[in-house]
């Protein structure tokens, strides 16, 4: 960006189109929703694998959302933000990347409907913030405390996390290893137990 007589002048590469206002909003939402739709079809028992071919012709076949998003070469800033959603989810929980991206895509779809009703973006953001707080409150009420000695429940939880990771044939063994690893590093606190993920690693 350059300055000319006190007015900013935006210099763009040849062939570039510049969008502002509602057009920019719609294009950003569209780009993000395309990413969400790309990984959405990998979910569920009828989820499909994706065949990814890179510039060198190497082929990767996967239904893992994090892998798909990592391999896609993206230029659009809003699409890149969806990849950041997946990376954050992967870093925080180690799972659920596809679900996080699909939910983000649906929230954007609903936001677009609200924008069509001339609702200001800041009002939409405030509504989503309130909804997130309410959802957290509901989840806290639904949460069930699990005793570290309740091996059966812990194994079920671990096996659920392993499902869909192409490790189903060994999921019981892997679940037992995971439960044992967590038990060894869990530290009792006033609120319950605390686990340092780095200790497990």
What does this structure look like?
This protein has 201 residues and is mainly alpha-helical. The chain folds into 2 domains: 18-142, GroEL-like equatorial domain (GROEL, domain 1, Orthogonal Bundle); 151-200, no CATH class. The protein is built from 8 helices and 6 strands. The chain has helices at 21-40, 65-71, 77-93, 97-116, 121-142, 151-162, 171-185, 197-200, and strands at 2-4, 7-9, 50-53, 59-62, 187-188, 193-194. The strands form 3 sheets. The protein has a two-stranded antiparallel ribbon. A two-stranded antiparallel sheet has the order 3-4. Strands 5-6 form a two-stranded antiparallel ribbon. Strand 5 (187-188) and strand 6 form a beta hairpin. It is globular. The protein starts with a strand and ends with a helix.
Short description:
The chain has 201 residues and is mainly α.
Please supply descriptive tags for the structure shown above.
single chain; 201 residues; mainly alpha; GROEL, domain 1; 2 domains; two-stranded antiparallel ribbon; 8 helices; 58% helix; globular
